[in-house]
Amino acid sequence: MSYSISEQELLRRQKKEELEALGINPYPSATFASNTSTQDILSNFNKAPDNFKQISIAGRIMGRRIMGAASFVELQDASGKIQLYVHRDTLCPGDDKSFYNTVFKKLLDIGDLIGIEGYVFTTQVGEISIHVNKLTLLSKALRPLPVVKEDDKQVYDAFTDPEQRYRQRYVDLLVTPTTRSIFQKRTQMIQAIRQYLNSQGYDEVETPILQPLYGGASARPFKTHHNTLDMSLYLRIANELYLKRLIVGGYEGVYEFAKDFRNEGMSRFHNPEFTMLELYVAYKDYKWMMNLTEELLEQVALHLYGTTAVPVGTHTIDFKRPWKRFTMFEAIQHFTGIDISQMEELELRKAAATLSVPLEASAGKAKIIDEIFGAKCEPNLIQPTFITDYPVEMSPLAKQHRDNPTLVERFEVICNGKEICNAFSELNDPIEQRKRFEEQLQLGQRGDEEAMMLDEDFLRALSYGMPPTAGLGIGIDRLAMIMTNAPSIQEVIFFPQMRPEH
């Protein structure tokens, strides 16, 4: 990528050189010790003004008004913004006023990082501000920030282009307050989930990202090569099979926040690198897991907002229990008027054609049902809804339904038109699991690039006996979209995957 230096950058480089000529290091290595934050000051100064008579704080210059012997600076730290009052005679108490007249007024810029010492006071117009006694340059910014300007209710130079925002997230975080709040909410959401699962006595664990066989989901993997072992490895598409190995090993409840990778299409709901929570609990089934899922997500909404009702676009999504429940075939019949429950592959293809649902030539029965459901049902499911009891062909890792051998004990949670959770009564019969894997191999031979591989070590683990187990996966990024009212997955991932810059 070529790089040309703008006129403003050249000017800032000249200022850097002038600072160095004055003996001021633009990038000092000394520590600066803050003893407060802007949020602390703004929240607590009026309650306890004596606590803010000697403060030190560091942050970035986001605005300046130079007014002769006195100036105002807008300082931003991680918690917010506050006004600084800088007076020449306070900053330079002796005869030499060059630090104020030259360094402060001429050589500092918006974007520079400074540390200040002083005391907090209230201006004549009632604004809480810091009277600066000492100012230290901590880092010189050589690129100008995109400073937003407003004039007669019109906004200029706003940093709003999505591609720029995602590529330069560091700038987006500096100049777009809503971006920081989205990621703070995401962090709070993950903490709430972790706190809930820990309170249930489940163990947080870690499993391999580089795997000799990919499994646990139907997806196309990323492939790499390990030179020392001279073998192919895959970035995991799911951590399911490793967590089940831990259940075999005696754990009764394990979970992991996992980075997964799928070599598939990209959209506002898909990023090739994404975060999943997976949970496995021994001696439980999918009905029990439905109740836990309702309770967990209800608690997350309450933790974030103090209510179960969350605004998402033009909707208000309510996570209050209980949620609506459909079987998969009931949902398809409800939204299409067609009962596909007894159809074989040829009839399903005709039904898909009738419904104008496009199919790939390699699609088998499970894929066709999934495409019909995705096109005709998912977009209509806005409130959190359980879809249960999937055809056995769609779920190679789920246990056969106790009442209907053509189905499996599985549910998905659809919310705001997309799947956010997937769960099974886990298949623990090693012979049946081998049969399912072999059927997946046949789909792969037909050209299905998302078919699962046969994992002999996982089958060996099952052969030692895995207790009845309920498993749950939650798409953390999609859940974050809902919980932060974000329109795309790129808004809730710090650095989403993008094409190279030209």
From TrEMBL:
Q: Which sites bind Mg(2+) 1?
A: E412, E419
Catalyzed reaction equations: tRNA(Lys) + L-lysine + ATP = L-lysyl-tRNA(Lys) + AMP + diphosphate
Question: Cross-referenced HAMAP family, in alphabetical order?
Answer: Lys_tRNA_synth_class2 (MF_00252)
EC code(s) of this entry? 6.1.1.6
What does the Swiss-Prot or TrEMBL cofactor note state? Binds 3 Mg(2+) ions per subunit.
**What GO terms are given for molecular function?**
ATP binding; lysine-tRNA ligase activity; magnesium ion binding; tRNA binding
Q: Where in the cell is it found?
A: Cytoplasm
Q: Which cofactor does it need?
A: Mg(2+)
Q: Which residues form a coiled coil?
A: none
Pfam families from the UniProt entry: tRNA-synt_2, tRNA_anti-codon
Q: Which gene is this protein's source?
A: lysS
The Gene Ontology biological process annotation of the record reads: lysyl-tRNA aminoacylation
Q: Where is the Aminoacyl-transfer RNA synthetases class-II family profile domain?
A: 186-500
Keyword Lyase present in the record's keywords: the answer is no
Query: Which terms in the GO cellular component ontology are assigned?
Result: cytosol
Q: What is its main location?
A: cytoplasm
- Keywords, comma-separated and alphabetical: Aminoacyl-tRNA synthetase, ATP-binding, Cytoplasm, Ligase, Magnesium, Metal-binding, Nucleotide-binding, Protein biosynthesis
Cite the InterPro entries for this sequence: Aa-tRNA-synt_II (IPR004364), aa-tRNA-synth_II (IPR006195), aa-tRNA-synth_II/BPL/LPL (IPR045864), Lys-tRNA-ligase_II (IPR002313), Lys-tRNA-ligase_II_N (IPR044136), Lys-tRNA-synth_II_C (IPR018149), NA-bd_OB-fold (IPR012340), NA-bd_OB_tRNA (IPR004365)
Its subunit composition reads: Homodimer.
Give the family this protein belongs to, as stated in its UniProt record.
Belongs to the class-II aminoacyl-tRNA synthetase family.
- The residues that the entry says bind Mg(2+) 2 are E419
This one is known as Lysine--tRNA ligase
User: Top-level EC class, please?
Assistant: ligase
